[in-house]
DNA sequence: TCGTTCTTATGCGCATCCTTATTGTAGAAG
DNA sequence: CTTCTACAATAAGGATGCGCATAAGAACGA
């Protein structure tokens, strides 16, 4: 799970980085709005923690431009001010959630989890969707009484699908988030891992299946009988 | 395995009871918070499935009072609301896991299994997990009639694994806790001690084995026959 | 000094990952 | 309806790198 932190105050930035890293998020950190925008525009992040007051380009503007560029990465806005008008402005600009400083580490993590959880539910260190439970700590997929171990890539791909349960995850997104943006991985690569996963789902007798949308991507669903 | 279900809504209560009974759990069922508390305080249960909204005493309060009375039975909280603040409150009050209604039967069972999966137990100055007993004073590992002495590092590594019985302990955690945070110890170091430990487990004819999760860490388990 | 415990080094084996090739299927054109 | 093309699914074969084991050297305490 990749997180971008945009925060100019050094102490706070460091604290944020540490909190997130401890939870095994992959953290990238930048210190002004211009850099923040550049990084976030890549769309490779699962969430952006964005300070409101920033050098060069302020947080509201960053959020606005991101949304204008159709980047839908969830944004958690941070601010020192605790004013309703700020919140409205932030949310109007495309932020998904809002926190005032000082904040509690637990609350921050809870909010980030809430943002990165689209449909599949993350509780503790498990991710559930349909009749599937993915154990994040052991990279192990559970369904009923059966369970299987997943390889690293298998795990990452399935996690994306479960996080966006029932919504289509574009193949290019999968490549970007699992193989990395700079990757020259072929589409066929994804197909291979989808194939692996389908096999394991069948093995588990799961009712959940991976559906295909041609030219687009894949999604999880539980077909009606 | 004894489970206490605290749920006021008759339909749901019945469904829960059935799901659990089918899995050969011994189920006790009560329908308000006051009874729930009384029953749970006996400490005889392996897990409590606890609704948040209850007559007389609500779920949060039940959890809080249980923990206050040093009853550590795992609690799985149920709620209709899907709000982050509820989850935080629930977990803060001592719940171990959280599920929102409606839920999948398989997921419920998976979570209950996860909760009842016993961790290593400390009694006096011994630590037990599976068929292993670690004597903390003598740095000595006992299994059945056999026993071996452990080196200091061996001992520390095994203690970590036993304390988190069945859950994956990341290699970096092992290095941090055994060699120290500032250590530049190599991963290979851990592997060597895992190797030593496996040899001693085999020597003791223990049914407990050390499993591997690639790129992550190790865990103890007792494989099915 | 000796023995135990800890660290470092090295080759091998295997799970995972990636690539290529073949077969299968959906949709468009004739 | 048939044929063609593009894409998707699966299978099979290496390539890679991680983890395992063993051994030998270093530190430590008796």
Give the structure's gist in a few sentences.
With 225 residues, chain A is of the alpha/beta class. Chain A has helices at 10-22, 33-41, 59-68, 84-92, 105-116, 152-163, 171-179, 187-203; strands spanning 2-6, 26-30, 47-51, 75-79, 97-100, 121-123, 126-129, 132-135, 140-143, 146-149, 169-170, 209-213, 217-221. Chain A folds into two domains: 2-116, Rossmann fold (3-Layer(aba) Sandwich); 121-221, Winged helix-like DNA-binding domain superfamily/Winged helix DNA-binding domain (Arc Repressor Mutant, subunit A).
What's the number of helices of chain A? 8
User: At the first level of CATH, what is the class of the largest domain in chain A?
Assistant: Alpha Beta
N-to-C CA distance of chain A? 34 Å
What is the domain tally of chain A? 2
Number of strands of chain A: 13
Strand order of the largest sheet of chain A: 2-1-3-4-5
Quaternary: homodimer
Largest sheet of chain A: 5 strands, parallel
CATH topology-level fold name of the largest domain in chain A: Rossmann fold
Order of helices and strands of chain A: EHEHEHEHEHEEEEEHEHHEE
Large-scale geometry of chain A: elongated
Average pLDDT number of chain A? 81
* Share in β-strands of chain A: 15-25%
CATH superfamily of the largest domain in chain A: Response regulator
Shape-level CATH architecture of the largest domain in chain A: 3-Layer(aba) Sandwich
Secondary structure: helix percent of chain A? 40-55%
SS class of chain A: alpha/beta
Radius of gyration of chain A: 18 Å
Q: If interface size is counted as residues with C-beta under 8 Å from the partner's C-beta, which chains form the largest one?
A: A-B, 25 and 22 residues
Given as residue ranges, the uncertain stretches of chain A (5+ residues, pLDDT < 50) are: none
